[in-house]
Design brief:
19 strands, seven-stranded mixed sheet, alpha/beta
């Protein structure tokens, strides 16, 4: 467990705590940031004794320090960057070092990160977020060891104190701290949704967990069952669900933080709680990872929770079509034709291209809401992993103004995105033989672009829209992002979507 504490004081009460110091290279020397003269001298003496600070990605720990009231000193290197993503990554370094060395009480002077009146809130926000995100673990189904009555065991908690100079703007610092907590808690919540095994995370459970999490947040949650989905002419979602004994759900989350007359921004997320591929069954190797096919939906749920808890002055709606894709007796067959909510017909040539079939209904419904913009997130194509690996999320839109808006939002959130091509050639490849469209391309290559072109057909032309393919970034990104689990859901795009929502406030 971890607890992050905010204190506008330079003291901590414990006598066994660890102080985190930051050093920065300048003119081939290392300057200690935000430390007392004694501690600066301590580090200088270490450097003179030949201690190398050039590579401090893991931090350098000195135990039993006598240069201050702190028992230990953890020295961490920092570069010249002062953006929030740098601080999140520094927070990961700090927490991992504290955990490795079992240092349960520690303090960080944020002045060591160059915090000033204008930036103190951002520094506190990013550190808080980075620490809480790094500490996330999924152990719901690990057997806990039986307590030894002779020596009772308790779960150790890492208490990390962010020490802030009292002269800094206290309201700004407090807001930064609360924002960091909220964003980290919502991201960790959707990570836990994504990490749940398929037998524990069905569409019904996803809907119930959404309703439970939304209580007291100001969100209105409406859940459609299988009968309602059929009645509402959602032929894609209903059709894909027929292969499973588990019923589908359509989750609607509504937040009103602005005047009712103001058009909402709508977020749509693919909620496939397990994807076997259906009749076009997937190879068995790695199929267990298809529990993560609902991460787009989970991350949209997290986005709406964050927007509501941050009380943004915007109207926002989240839509999550959720089902399993299984090869049951009533499952879609290659060659079947489904009818979307907007009336367009689709030939199903490959039942493993099901995400676009459930999204087409959700995007049609989103268009009916006359929104200011629509953004969808989905683990949609393996082609995206081939193109961008697990570093960048690819996004698709023909709206060049929206490209700039998205890039600005992603930069502010510290998430990497990359604009991908979409044009009429991609749409031509998705035309059907006996129906309006086909769910896979008639030509080879550009699988992510053709999938985006398919989705585009269910968004009204005058509505700004962008599709985010998170197939490469929704899980297993810890080798790229140190505050994400090495294995497991990442919660990608929640921060970027929150930043996008601010544009419509």
């Amino acid at each position: 467990m971890i607890q992050v504490h905010l204190s506008q004081s330079k003291k901590v009460t414990t006598k066994s705590s660890t102080l985190v110091l930051f050093v920065q290279e300048k003119n081939k020397k290392f300057n200690v940031m935000g430390a007392s003269r004694e501690l600066a001298g301590f580090v200088s003496n270490l450097e003179a004794d030949g201690v190398q600070f050039a590579d401090l990605k893991k931090g350098l720990l000195f135990r039993n320090n006598t240069a201050s009231e702190f028992k230990n000193i953890l020295v961490v290197g920092r570069g010249p960057e002062k953006d929030k993503e740098t601080f999140r990554r520094l927070a990961a370094t700090i927490y991992q070092s504290l955990k490795t060395n079992k240092l349960f009480e520690s303090a960080i002077h944020i002045e060591g990160l160059g915090a000033s009146g204008k930036t103190a809130g951002d520094v506190v926000e990013a550190l808080t977020e980075g620490l809480l995100l790094t500490a996330y673990e999924f152990k719901d189904y690990k057997t806990k060891p039986k307590d030894d009555k002779a020596t009772p065991k308790k779960e150790d908690t890492f208490n990390i104190h962010l020490l802030v100079d009292g002269s800094l703007n206290s309201a700004q610092v407090k807001k930064g701290f609360e924002t960091g907590e909220t964003l980290a808690e919502t991201v960790n919540f959707v990570r836990r949704l994504g990490d749940q095994p398929g037998n524990m995370m069905t569409p019904e459970v996803l809907a119930d967990e959404t309703a439970k999490a939304a209580k007291g947040s100001g969100l209105k949650v409406t859940i459609w069952n299988k009968e309602k989905i059929k009645k509402e002419r959602m032929g894609g979602l209903y059709g894909v669900s027929l292969g499973s004994d588990v019923d589908p759900r359509f989750i609607i989350m509504e937040y009103n933080g602005a005047a009712k007359s103001k058009a909402p921004v709508v977020f749509v997320g693919k909620g496939l709680t397990f994807d076997s591929g259906g009749i076009s069954i997937k190879p068995s190797g790695g199929m267990e990872e298809m529990i993560y096919d609902m991460c787009g939906g989970a991350n949209v749920i997290g986005t709406l929770l964050a927007i509501a808890r941050l009380k943004l002055k915007v109207n926002a709606i989240g839509l999550v079509p959720s089902t399993e894709n299984m090869p049951g007796p009533l499952a879609n067959k290659p060659g079947d034709i489904l009818t979307a909510r907007n009336g367009k017909t689709v030939e199903v040539y490959n039942t493993d291209a099901e995400g676009r079939l459930i999204l087409m209904d959700a995007l049609s419904y989103a268009s009916e809401l006359k929104p200011a913009a629509i953004f969808d997130a989905a683990t949609l194509t393996g082609a995206m992993v081939v193109a961008l690996g697990n570093s960048y999320t690819g996004f698709f839109t023909r709206n060049q103004k929206l490209v700039k808006t998205i890039q600005t939002a992603a930069d502010a959130a510290g998430e990497w995105v990359w604009p991908m091509p979409i044009n009429d050639h991609h749409l031509e490849d998705m035309k059907g033989l006996h129906a309006d469209l086909c769910n896979i391309s008639s030509s080879k290559g550009a699988g992510s672009s053709t999938a985006a072109a398919f989705l585009e057909q269910f968004v009204e032309k005058d509505i700004p829209w962008a599709h985010f393919d998170i197939a490469g970034t929704a899980w297993h990104v810890g080798n790229r992002v140190p505050y994400c689990p090495r294995k497991g859901a990442s919660g990608v795009m929640v921060r970027t979507f929150v930043e996008l929502a601010k544009n419509y406030a």
